[in-house]
Design brief:
- The chain is α/β, with parallel strands linked by helices and 145 residues long.
- Helix content is 48%, strand content 21%.
- It has six helices and five strands, in the order H-E-E-H-H-E-H-E-H-E-H.
- It has a five-stranded mixed sheet.
Length: 145
């Protein structure tokens, strides 16, 4: 998760929502990414999607079997769909999206675990993941964004 936080910091420095994602296979990082929606001018340039694309290219396969995803913020529905489709088995999440009700989000993620046979762990370096998001949005409001 520390590497995902470094990616989130890169997004922050580019004035992107600071979310970072890292994909690991056999205890080695095979892909890292951060949000680039503003820079790329596309709604799908989320950290998870970009990391999945990099991992696909690295492994020369759309299936990311035996891979783990570390992401600083709870994945949105689009990203969850891509994660499930790519066959990632373990998802480690830093924090729940503050826009979502925590218990609802946890229940929804538990449903995905059962339905799709994935393992989800929430709260990895939670304080650090929350802090970078809070700071970003505080700075954004202060600067009139």
């Amino acid at each position: 998760m520390k590497e995902a936080l470094k990616e989130a910091q890169k997004a922050y420095s580019k004035e992107e929502i600071p979310v970072g994602a890292v994909i690991v296979k056999d205890n080695k990082i095979i892909a890292k990414a951060h949000n680039l929606k503003e820079l790329k001018k596309t709604a799908i340039a989320h950290a998870e999607i970009l990391a999945i694309q990099k991992a696909n290219k690295k492994l020369q396969n759309w299936r990311l079997l035996n891979c783990d995803l570390y992401v600083t913020l709870e994945p949105c529905m689009m990203c969850l769909g891509a994660i499930i489709s790519s066959r990632i088995k373990n998802i480690y999440i830093g924090t729940i999206d503050p826009k979502n009700e925590e218990q609802e989000a946890e229940n929804r993620l538990k449903e995905y675990e059962k339905k799709y046979g994935i393992n989800i762990k929430i709260g990895i370096l939670q304080e650090e993941c929350e802090d970078i998001l809070k700071k970003f949005f505080k700075d954004l409001r202060k600067n009139g964004g």
